[in-house]
Amino acid sequence: MLRSATKALNSTRLMSSLPSVQKVVLIRETGGLEVLRFEDNFPVPEISSDEILIKNKYAGINYIESYFRKGIYPAEKPYLLGREASGVVVARGDNVDKFQVGDKVAYLSGNTFAQYTKIAQDKQILKLPETTTDDHMKQYAALMVQGLTALTFVNDAYSVQKGDFVLLYAAAGGAGLAFNQLLKQKGAHTIAVASTDDKLQLARDYGAEYFINSQKDDILAKVMEYTNGEGVDAAFDSVGKDTFEITLSALKRKGTFVSFGNASGPVPPLNIGRLSPKNIKLLRPQLFAYVTGADDWERYSKEFVRLVDSDLLTAKIFGVYPLENYKDAAELMEARKTVGKLLLEIP
């Protein structure tokens, strides 16, 4: 009884020593970059008995934030942006037994473009070694969404086999570079699509084997050239509307179309009968549905940590921006002027 009371008292003291307001990036309405707001008086969340409070150090920037900002994906307002982060546990609820105050962690969650984020202890959180360096804190923040997306997709969305030809769009972006590395390890032949020769060289450095410059080349013609007219076994398409028809045509008989982004806008409604002539499989997966179950999270998180800690999966950090400068980073990303991953450093 005394131990329980002491634990509750310590939790209360920890929370009372924290600030009541924090700095965040959010939207209060949908629209262009102009609706992004940096606020310095947003309430610090209060944790329940099963939650921890994390002081964020780095947060990953992902293209998906633009979908919420533009209203492509619905969200209640105000909507605090962010999908992933690394940081340190600064408070825990009375029932928390998996984490201690002071633990270094990386995690998947909304609301990470903030100084503090709360999350239940049984959600997608990685406890990192005490010796985790600042550089590795950046790597984990950079890879939680895109690295795990690539890892789950090449196993669950389409089980990539040695010798497969795989079409990969945005091959020099954060997700693209993660896909390149994992596809190479599986023995696949990656056909990388990017908008500049410099980006294609980066894709080559990370494991791609064939290359298509989307600004100069006929994508479908190049795919057929590389595959001797057969088409690809699978395609990972994050572009959406502008490439959907090309990708559908580029698939071989019994090919798999993995559509997972809307960079050019949402894909229009499809008559599913169009999949029949080649027995195409069409998926619209998302990472969280692959790691929601405890067993799935355990399996994928262990493999993810192994890959990151052994440098078999690395992120190219394009830039680290102060939290208040998120708008500048988003503008560069959406103008396709970046490669690899962008991070926010949380004050």
Protein architecture, described:
- Keywords: NADP, Oxidoreductase.
- Residues 31-344 form the Enoyl reductase (ER) domain.
- InterPro entries: ADH-like_C (IPR013149), ADH-like_N (IPR013154), ER (IPR020843), GroES-like_sf (IPR011032), NAD(P)-bd_dom_sf (IPR036291), QOR-like (IPR047618), Quin_OxRdtase/zeta-crystal_CS (IPR002364).
- One of its GO terms (molecular function) is NADPH binding.
- Pfam families: ADH_N, ADH_zinc_N.
- The protein is an alpha/beta fold and 347 residues long.
- The chain folds into two domains: 2-132 and 316-345, Medium-chain alcohol dehydrogenases, catalytic domain (Quinone Oxidoreductase, Chain A, domain 1, Alpha-Beta Complex); 146-288, NAD(P)-binding Rossmann-like Domain (Rossmann fold).
- 32% of the residues lie in helices and 27% in strands.
- It contains ten helices and 16 strands.
- The chain has helices at 2-16, 64-70, 134-157, 174-185, 197-205, 219-226, 244-250, 287-291, 294-309, 326-334, and strands at residues 21-27, 36-43, 51-61, 79-80, 84-92, 104-108, 116-120, 125-128, 165-168, 189-194, 210-213, 232-237, 251-259, 281-283, 317-322, 341-345.
- Strands 3, 5, 6, 7, 8, 15 and 16 form a seven-stranded mixed sheet that branches.
- Strand 1 and strand 2 form a beta hairpin.
- Helix 3 (134-157) crosses helix 9 and helix 6 (219-226) packs parallel to helix 7 (244-250).
- The longest helix is centred in the middle third of the chain and has 24 residues, at 134-157.
- The radius of gyration is 21 Å and the shape is globular.
- It starts with a helix and ends with a strand.
- Residues 1-10 have low confidence and may be disordered.
